[in-house]
Design goal:
This protein is 44% helix and 21% strand. It has eleven helices and twelve strands. The structure holds alpha-L-arabinofuranose (AHR). It is found in: Cell envelope. It holds the Pfam family Peripla_BP_4.
Length: 312
């Protein structure tokens, strides 16, 4: 069934110059904006025409964009799915039109696995685990109350980053997750939710903040500073993405750790699509990107400067 669907997608066509539709979530974070920039650059390098539809965080807009790409008869579709569920009908439409879909940076429910060609993502459970393990090692056996800023509700990466972090801290009775709420991956909401955590817990009762992305952490750092607290010193921080601003915060002693997520998801996706269209090569179902931990010990200003060429 799966092999049949994939062969139908391939269609045996030679793809001299491909046109690809990209349904992007929006621009909620610095990482997301960089992913869009990198996608344009990588398309240009390969002579691919890319049409980008910004969904402004709404799944309904993504569904409309995919339908429009299908109607235009594009050669392939890149989809960064805002949430994990609700894709079956529209992805079946793409499959019926023999247009391969590649997921970027987020997954859909496992039941939809035969509806896309491959997924270029990190192991987001592992990202949470790396963040949690860093915290357990840094805290040792001291008591530590942690607050968590979750990503968008229903997004695979939010579910998985929570899962991995929870698993890492579970064996450590001294570390307690006392508050957890969504900040929707944005700076503004990260700040707002952190302000409410500080109010509810009393700032000095909080030992660490875990944020599912750096943008929310940058907002949370601001909230802590405005409350007279010292993030990075009195309150530990660990987040995900490795955007330039978190390295600036590390250099200022206001952030402690981040787990890197590459914004170059499109490069491997375009390579897989080209090989598939031109040679019928079926890629692995998961093209995994690396998850690397950075701490304040990693010369943050050097990393900050090197990130400038990566689309930020
Ligand atoms: O899906 C990847 C996540 O989406 C990034 O960590 C976050 O910054 C973005 O909004």
């Amino acid at each position: 069934m799966l092999a049949g669907a994939l062969l139908a997608w391939a269609g045996g066509a030679q793809a001299a110059s491909l046109t690809v539709g990209f349904s992007q979530i929006g621009s909620e974070s610095g990482w997301r904006a960089a992913e869009t920039t990198v996608t344009k650059d990588e398309a240009k390098k390969r002579g691919i025409t890319v049409k980008i539809a910004d969904a402004q965080q709404k799944q309904e807009n993504q569904i409309k964009a995919i339908r429009s790409f299908v109607a235009q008869g594009v050669d392939g579709i890149l989809l960064a799915p805002v949430v994990a569920t609700g894709w079956d009908s529209v992805l079946k439409e793409a499959r019926d039109a023999k247009i391969p879909v590649i997921l970027l940076d987020r997954d859909i429910d496992p039941a939809g696995k035969d509806l896309y060609l491959t997924a270029v993502t990190s192991d987001s459970v592992e990202e949470g685990r790396v963040a949690g393990t860093w915290l357990t090692k840094t805290v040792g056996d001291k008591p530590c109350n942690v607050v968590e800023l979750q990503g968008t509700v229903g997004a695979s990466v939010a579910t998985n980053r929570k899962k991995g972090f929870d698993a890492a801290i579970a064996p450590h009775a001294n570390i307690k997750l006392v508050r957890s709420q969504t900040g929707d991956f944005t700076r503004a909401k990260g700040k707002e939710v952190m302000e409410s955590f500080i109010k509810a817990e009393g700032g000095r009762a909080i030992c660490a903040v875990y944020a599912h992305n750096d943008d929310m952490m940058v907002g949370a750092i601001q909230a802590m500073k405005e409350a007279g607290l010292k993030p990075g010193k009195e309150i530990l921080t660990v987040s995900i993405d490795a955007v330039p601003d978190i390295f600036k915060a590390m250099a200022a002693g206001e952030a402690n750790a981040t787990v890197e997520l590459t914004p170059d998801m499109a490069g491997p996706a375009f390579d897989a699509l080209k090989a598939y269209k031109e040679k019928g090569t079926v890629p692995p179902k998961w093209i995994q990107t690396e998850s690397k931990l950075y701490t304040a010990a990693d010369d943050p200003m050097k990393v900050y400067n090197s990130k400038k060429n990566l689309g930020y």
